[in-house]
Amino acid sequence: MNGSIHGDTLMTDIQAAFSDPQFVARYTEGPRRFVPGYDAMQSMATILLAESVPGDGQVLVLGAGGGLELKAFAQAHPGWRFDGVDPSAAMLALAGQTLGELAPRARFHQGYVDDAPQGPFDGATCLLTLHFVDVVERRRIASEVRRRLKPRAPFVVAHLSAPDGEKERPLWLARYSAFLAASGVEPDQAAAARDAVSSHLQILAPAQDEVILREAGFSDPTLFYTGFAFRGWVAYA
Fold first, then answer.
1. pTM for the structure as a whole
2. Which of residues 199 and 223 earns the better pLDDT score?
3. What angle do CA 101, 105, 106 make, to 5 degrees?
4. Which of 55, 181, 197, 228 is deepest in the core (most CB within 10 A)?
């Protein structure tokens, strides 16, 4: 989890959750239940990175807490090295545990995008993170990542993104709620999750997400993943 809406009540609550020992202990169970096609999305992100990242490449991972994508990338490409950034020390500790014997290939940095090394990196990812920050901060994060990448290096992002029409947005969120219920979440909790996502997270329309990438200096933003209310893109520095 990576974000920086400083002073916002929601962000304070999110940061508190990602520092709560019980939440952290259960974290690795959650994404596969709460994100449609989570494992496939990670596999696709790995493939997209590998099209450009060399065998001994260095990859920047924003929102690296928990370590799930780090482990997927590291297992698929034994020569890759990683810099993982996350504001939660507890989640970074969990990332180290998740990586296990692969942990020496990753350097961890507690903080936000400004705390990331300058690079230049061969590729970068920001998965399930940008919906925590507002439009202004999202633009800044994209620009800071772009500044840290080598020319034509890939940037892979995935987060909540759904059409903002009066009928379309509620429909997509209702479908997401139904997915949660089908994944074993109690129906009332699935409905509450839908309401919380709708009210508190920063969901943009897909076209807006693509504009932000272009404004940050990325070219060819291409949609590669759609999971109900989640979408993912790859774009190039």
1. 0.88
2. 223
3. 105
4. 228
